[in-house]
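Section 5.1 Outputs to date
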Amino acid sequence: MHQIVLGEELWGLKVAIKGRPLDEQGCIVLARRIIKAINMRYRDATTGVVLEPKVWHYPWAGNGGVGDTVCQPAYTICQPLFESFSFLLPGMVAMDTWAEHEGWYLVVESCRKFSHRRVLRYLQRLGYEVIDYATSYVRLKPKRRWRKWWRKWIWW
């Protein structure tokens, strides 16, 4: 069985969704539902501390578009998450809205492995049109990959 080493690995899912973005409160609710769907939490079970989402509206500080070029709603939401144990693991659910492109992005990142398919099925069950997605996995301590000497001659 795979043992979790805090912070050594990071699993990710990026999803492009077609359709008018949700309003700000709707995004927060959806982010929290996705966190529950992958068996994680945004609230610490022992202390009751809630990790509140951070919201950035655009244009902001002169960045993210100028005036009317940014259709509303235009914002990014980031909801941190707790791992299923009582300690915080780096992870988040983020949404980036693009009304002018009639779509938005969903990003899920966690140091604990989660089911990408569960998130995709959940979105489809809610009626969202997933048009593209990508998964990722990275490690701070990559495994050594030994290359056979003859592969060097064949591939290079």
